[in-house]
Amino acid sequence: MVKIGNITLGDFPLLLAPMEDVSDPPFRAVCKENGADLMYTEFISSEGLIRDAAKSVQKLDIFEYERPIGIQIFGSDIEVMREAAEIATEAGPDLIDINYGCPVKAVACKGAGAALLQDVPKMVAMTKTIVESTHLPVTVKTRLGWDENTKYIREVAARLQDIGIQALSIHGRTRKQMYKGEADWTLIGEVANDPAIHIPIFGNGDIDSPEKAKMYRDRYGVQGMMIGRASIGYPWIFREIKHYLESGSKLEKPDIEERVRVCLRHFDESVKWKGDKLGIFEMRKHYANYFKGIPDFKPMRMRLVQADSRLEIQQILGEVLELYADVLI
Fold it and tell me: What's the pTM?
């Protein structure tokens, strides 16, 4: 049974990765309903939190049905991160997660996210400060290293465990790789199977099918998996992997009726949380994935992304249901 502090997550938990502009409450709602065991907010700027910036503060929104849920923060200044951890703690999550993995320039070039992989002592000092500033379990998300010459993840895991983190998620690429090439799980497996490591190690990177999830679980011995891009517009990935790991058989893919139903649920939550204008706009990036694999769907997708009212979108999705009712995906 995998546990983070007092949080029990089952025998092999599946985690929804914190993804900027994706892992918001509407998206988390449909992932939770389809089997995600632990979810995180989008990563939140520590500077934004202590300045009370509206965008950062809104990301603190969490709901009871999402639990267990972690708030993820990032930053480059240790004192600012301490203050941000205290603010995040007051929002009432189940844990605090620290982002040491984000590779994008806007974050890494300011000394945050994956940049901390270039300064392991500072990473350790920052983590220790955050662990001491909250009563909640603290976890970390990171990468193998900054580049091919700095894959220090085994040292990082041991040192962070020693100062009190309670789980570690590792993305199987360096910062230099960004999201290119294939994720290398070899070092993730070495950390997960190190007898000196006793916290849960969650593998992340390229898990996009039940078969791959089982193969990587068996090959690398991780305690769970974090799924990111494969879940965008396809929250069913969680239940499909769970079913396959438990039974060895594959679930049927969601039919068009279910795709429309879940897309509508996601849309309704988006509008409820963000209001009509922003809620409609934010959903536009999801339609292509919800209906991926449907032949000649582009004209319908274009109508969806151009629609600007609830009623129009609901009507178009109704048409999708009628037009593609017999299509096998």
Answer: 0.94
Of 31, 102, 109, 263, catalytic: 102
Say if 3-247 and 256-323 have the same CATH topology: no
Query: In this structure, which CATH number among 3.30.70, 1.10.860, 1.10.1200, 3.30.450 belongs to the domain 256-323?
Result: 1.10.1200
171 by Cβ neighbours in 10 Å (0-12 / 13-18 / 19+) ranks as buried
Is residue 253 within 8 Å of residue 322, measured between CB atoms? no
- Distances in Å between the Cα of 157 and the Cα atoms of 43, 149, 171, 221 are 21, 17, 13, 16
Which residues have CB under 8 Å from 146's CB, separation 6+?
114, 115, 117, 118, 174, 175, 176
What homologous superfamily is domain 3-247 in, according to CATH?
Answer: Aldolase class I (3.20.20.70)
Which residue ranges make up each domain of the chain? 3-247, 256-323
pLDDT at 88 over 90: yes
Asked if residue 117 lies in contact with residue 149, where contact means CB atoms within 8 angstroms, the answer is no
d(CA 172, CA 184): 5
263 labelled catalytic: no
Residues 228, 221: Cα–Cα separation, whole Å? 20
pLDDT digits over 237-262, tens only?
999 999 999 999 999 999 999 999 99
DSSP code per residue over 165-182:
---EEEESS-TTTTT-S-
